[in-house]
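[Automated response] Your request has been received and processed.

Submitted sequence:
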Amino acid sequence: MGFEAWLTIIVVLGVLAMLASPRIAPDAALFGGLALLVLGGVLTPEEALAGFGNEGLVTIALLFVVVAGIVETGAVTWLAERLFGRPRTLVMALVRMMAPTALLSALMNNTPLVAMLIPAVNDWAKQRKISPSKLLMPLSYAAVLGGVCTMIGTSTNLVVNGMLIRAHNAQVAAGGEVTLPRGLGIFEIAWVGIPCTIVGLAFIVLASRWLPDRQTTLASVSDPREYTIEMLVEPGSPLVGKSIEEAGLRHLSGLYLAEIYRDGVVLPAVGPTEKLRSNDHLVFVGIVDSVVELQRIRGLTPATNQVFKLDSPRTQRCLIEAVASQNCPVVGKTIRDGRFRSLYNAAVIAVARHGERVRGKIGDIVLRAGDTLLLEAHPSFVDEHRNSRHFYLVSKVENSTPPRFERGALALGILLAMVAMVTISESLGSLPVVVGGVQILDTLTMFKGALIAAALMILTRCVPMIQARKAVDWSLLVAIGASLGLGKALDKSGAAQAITGHLLEWVHSNPLLTLAVIYLVTLIMTEILTNNAAAAVMFPFALTAAAQLGVNPVPMVVAVMVGASLGFASPIGYQTNLMVYGPGGYRFSDYLKVGVPLDLIVGAVAVAMISVVWRF
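Generated structure:
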């Protein structure tokens, strides 16, 4: 190996060491390593930046917009309730979450699936009083495992299958012996994928006690701003006729149902079997983040009718906290007599006073200086009153805009249409769209499908443009783009080929051992390079090894396909691992603790099944 190869290896090892430290952000570590390789002359600026224009990276960015449409319309909450249910233990939560995730991942590309489910699992975990970090990593792992059960479950399978088809066509064109099939069938890989998925999911459930706990549930957070908020069960609400337990109102994190006002009668100490009725007034006590969760429950609205008299539509409003000062003209008066809504174009929906519960109807509360008011208003309220003498402090509550429930079915329809069209197109190889005799679209790739779906989400107002911009996780995109650059450096410098070549020389006389080494090296490359880069590097070595041994090349190709998909020990090994890295609050070491044993166990099953299904 030359100087460039050694420099690349040193830089990559340094980046991995930095990723293991919780003090350095992943995007900073990866981009810093990429910068060193440019300065060292290993990569040109064009090669280093090529990863940021990668189709997969842009596809993920577009999927964030698609997912924002699902979240903004409340469809994600509905989806989580239908898929995951209400388990009482962590083990049951893992089973209820991973089983449908793995199944769906086999039928659709796992990247948009995880992007869609991250906010759903996050909210669901908080409601179940489980740390999200206990579930988000298994969410990614379940999607990765399910993705290897079919040819369309992961982009890696499609990439390797495409290389196999091109190699077959090259053999046919050469006119010699044809040893390669023209690709694999859509379900042919299931012989390996299904056993790996079953064993992998079982291991995660058995190892649930070792899953990282990086976040604290809202229930254990001490917040002096404890609000009492009254919510109305709207007529025709889907909650009508359901018990408190069935409606999901019993185990809300950081929030509890204190009492119900019904037809002038107060029902204290509400039991879980109490049935909800139209126009019930539910009195909740809890912290502000939990009040935001109430906003996302369809059929519940703040009981004060003042919210319906504001100028702006509810879907353009948010929650705002404001601390009343001595100069506030409403101090010393009731909220109703002080005409708060008319004065500020904002509705008071809850009041916090030194951690004490403020009893009574919102309109009858007499405000005091120092009271913290939870308001529903247009975001412009913050700018207008930030420096006002009427309030000591004004701040917006993030992600508190009421969902656009009326567009939930539309948003879900756009998502399902995207998945169905892409799946059909990738299965058939072509899905032409002809307008006026002109073909404007051929194969509907994941990128094209996400582009169309993101545009539809914005055009149909499922997600406002400003929220679409905020929904994109730019640090994740930087990390992915930089990791692709590192993979390019390993390939260009010859480091990857040199390391792989030396390993294969040790076992060239034993087909089974060669198969295991190809799988292992592909897996290691995946954890360092990302999956598609590892597959591109290892595919020619698989064909070369099979030719030297004079054996069937299909097992070697399948080993590359599966090994490049099943990477669990690194956040950069597979894009879904990186997608849950930030939301789960994980450290690099968390993936090693759970992922390395999972890599070895699933790898052993994969090698055994490949050698049995496809004979040498």
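Summary generated for your ticket: DSSP finds 23 helices and eleven strands in the chain. Confidence is low (pLDDT under 50) at residues 216-222.
If you did not submit this request, please reply to this message.
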